[in-house]
Amino acid sequence: MNPARLLIVLVSLFLISGRYLSGQQLENAIAVCNNITIKNNETEINIKELEIRGEGPDLKNPVLVKKKSGIPFSGRVFELYRNGQRRALGSLKNGKHQDSWLFWYDDGNKKCEATFNNGNRNGLWVYWHKNTQKKYIGNFKDGKMDGLWVYWHENGQKRFQGNFKDGKERGGHVRWHENGQKKAIENFKDGKLVGGSAKYWNSKGEPIDSRK
């Protein structure tokens, strides 16, 4: 089974059973999918062996190709920092990002777990601050934010929670200050703020007239 699809199935099974995935359970599920991806791909090369090709000066519809042959690459690729730490590891299909990808900071801490389809962000994305606190978790669909997204401040306090559809804000969105005080409640329809629906507070919890 495609690793990205397997991850979706694993998460869905927990949701159907009425349970939520803990952070460790989520990491374990993604690790399983990554291991399957590694076993299914025999070739792994340094991304330095590839170059970007695209249409026109803006490199539209970019693909990664082998430098000598110019052939779009399919297989596992990795990227390293100057200190030797891995920066990225994932798969390409016909020169485009595909399935599960992992990214790290230069100190070795995990930065991002991502999924792609034909070069587009697609599926579950999890991002961490450099201090290892979770930064955000959410889904992409065909390159656009879709469904529930949650962000956190570096200190671990929740920063934002809201839904998206086709990359546009939808429904109620809530924001918080770093100290945990509520910052804003807003309601959106098709990406536009519904007039008169918003409420705002400063970091002391006092009502204010607008977002700052």
Structure description:
It is a single chain. The protein has a domain at about 145-210: Single Sheet (Histone H3 K4-specific methyltransferase SET7/9 N-terminal domain), CATH 2.20.110. Helix content is about 15%, strand content about 50%. It contains two helices and 17 strands. The strands form two sheets. It has a 15-stranded mixed beta sheet that branches. Strands 2-3 form a two-stranded antiparallel ribbon. Helix 1 (about 5-15) packs antiparallel against helix 2. About 20% of the residues are buried. Residues about 5-20 and about 30-40 have low confidence and may be disordered.
Assign the CATH class of the domain at 143-212.
Answer: Mainly Beta
Strand content: over 45%
User: Which of globular, elongated, flat, extended, rod-shaped describes the shape?
Assistant: elongated
Helix content: 10-25%
CATH architecture of the domain at 143-212: Single Sheet
Instruction: Give a quick account of the main beta sheet: strands, pairing sense, barrel closure.
Output: 15 strands, mixed
User: How much is the average pLDDT?
Assistant: 86
* Computed structural class: alpha+beta
Give the terminus-to-terminus CA distance: 47 Å
Instruction: Give the number of DSSP strands.
Output: 17
Oligomer: single chain
* Rg (CA only): 20 Å
CATH topology description of the domain at 143-212: Histone H3 K4-specific methyltransferase SET7/9 N-terminal domain
Q: SSE string, helix = H, strand = E?
A: HHEEEEEEEEEEEEEEEEE
Unreliable residue stretches: 6-21, 31-41
CATH superfamily of the domain at 143-212: Histone H3 K4-specific methyltransferase SET7/9 N-terminal domain
Q: With helices defined by DSSP (H or I, 4 residues minimum), what is the helix count?
A: 2
